[in-house]
């Protein structure tokens, strides 16, 4: 399936370009099977906190939310290890890229698409991750929800990309591995591609995708390359 013509491609970061499974693998040696349980609890709580209405005067800070979510998950599992907590938080600063990500981005650049990351991640988190080889030379802009003090799926966050590129939403392909993000981006008006790496059933959300792919390697063909 191909999309209507687009002029730019915008990517979510975590779970789309960056493999959060690398955090699990980094502590599996010491936690064994509990590593997967911890990661599931942590990620679930992180997203739940980001979806809550912000208190008056409080601006979005994904690093703080991530740390609070990890504290919750570790407490729930009876883990009291400051060193473990620090290592897991530092993992967000240097996550692994999905294996096909660098080549897919390079192909899109060769096709002439400007590329951006649009993420809930704070700017320090994203800038650190962008030092990874294979990504720093292929991304034109890093757009953080922190700059508008809100988290996705708030429309103000999605608007960052259209403002940056000076384009209408329908001129942008938005790519995410997170179904809730897919719905929010579609509601804003983007042409959305869902990366369904685990081949899970669609979540029957009100608004969805123009296309679904198994990984980023399939994206250039959908965009005409």
Automatic annotation (TrEMBL):
It catalyses: an (S)-2-haloacid + H2O = a (2R)-2-hydroxycarboxylate + a halide anion + H(+). One of its GO terms (molecular function) is (S)-2-haloacid dehalogenase activity. It holds the Pfam family Hydrolase. Keywords: Hydrolase. The keyword Hydrolase applies. InterPro entries: 2-HAD (IPR006328), HAD-like_sf (IPR036412), HAD-SF_hydro_IA (IPR006439), HAD_sf (IPR023214), PGP-like_dom2 (IPR023198), S-2-haloacid_dehalogenase (IPR051540). SUPFAM superfamilies: HAD-like. It comes from Paramagnetospirillum magneticum (strain ATCC 700264 / AMB-1) (Magnetospirillum magneticum). PANTHER family: HALOACID DEHALOGENASE, TYPE II (AFU_ORTHOLOGUE AFUA_2G07750)-RELATED, HYDROLASE, HALOACID DELAHOGENASE-RELATED. Belongs to the HAD-like hydrolase superfamily. S-2-haloalkanoic acid dehalogenase family. The keyword ATP-binding does not apply. Its EC number is 3.8.1.2. This is (S)-2-haloacid dehalogenase. Catalyzes the hydrolytic dehalogenation of small (S)-2-haloalkanoic acids to yield the corresponding (R)-2-hydroxyalkanoic acids.
